[in-house]
């Protein structure tokens, strides 16, 4: 455990919310990560069309996201996956939390872990209508650098590219 992770665990205990542990994602997390992904998107972005079945989403998490990205999961003391983040190069591909654990600092902890792995810069894409996510990233120093009409994503939903640069 890094010094950063230890301090974050201590902070979680002080807030009376129990310990949340961050660890690297593994193949056996595929089912839980898929459930977090689906539940988070349904709660935060009900306007999005469902372009894949749950089974196809599980296959994608299993065969693409987990093996091809660096993935961290946030796990409760009981071993429940509460959220996850995935990084590919300098792109934060995913950061999702279960809807019942929002605003507890878990997303910030996952983002801090991602920044440790990519300390110079990060980019990400977020749907323009996902104002809560946009505000989260802006609070963490990200700046919108591009807006798109949705032609670059399979949901055809307008999105934005955000960038964070160390020291900037």
From TrEMBL:
- Pinpoint the N-acetyltransferase domain residues: 20-168
Report the Pfam families cross-referenced here. Answer: Acetyltransf_7
Tell me the GO molecular function terms.
acyltransferase activity, transferring groups other than amino-acyl groups
Composition bias (Low complexity) maps to 8-19
Q: Which InterPro entries match?
A: Acyl_CoA_acyltransferase, Bact_Acetyltransf, GNAT_dom
Q: Where does the source fall among the domains of life? A: Bacteria
Disordered as annotated region, ranges: 1-23
Q: What is its EC number?
A: 2.3.1.-
Q: What keywords appear on the UniProt entry?
A: Acyltransferase, Transferase
If you read the UniProt record, what top EC class would you report for this enzyme, in one word? transferase
Q: What is this protein called?
A: GNAT family N-acetyltransferase
Organism annotation: Streptomyces europaeiscabiei
């Amino acid at each position: 455990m890094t010094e950063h992770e230890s301090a974050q665990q201590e902070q979680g205990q002080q807030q009376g919310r129990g310990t949340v542990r961050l660890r690297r994602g593994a193949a056996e997390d595929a089912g839980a990560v898929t459930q977090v992904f689906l539940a988070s998107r349904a709660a935060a972005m009900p306007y999005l069309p469902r372009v894949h079945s749950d089974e196809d989403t599980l296959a994608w998490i299993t065969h693409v996201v987990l093996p091809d990205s660096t993935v961290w999961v946030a796990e409760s003391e009981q071993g429940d996956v509460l959220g996850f983040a995935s990084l590919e190069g300098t792109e934060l591909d995913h950061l999702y939390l279960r809807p019942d654990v929002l605003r507890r600092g878990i997303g910030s902890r996952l983002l801090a872990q991602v920044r440790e792995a990519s300390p110079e810069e990060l980019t990400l894409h977020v749907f323009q209508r996902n104002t809560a996510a946009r505000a989260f990233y802006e609070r963490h120093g990200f700046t919108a650098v591009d807006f798109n009409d949705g032609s670059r994503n399979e949901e055809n939903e307008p999105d934005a590219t955000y960038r964070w640069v160390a020291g900037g």
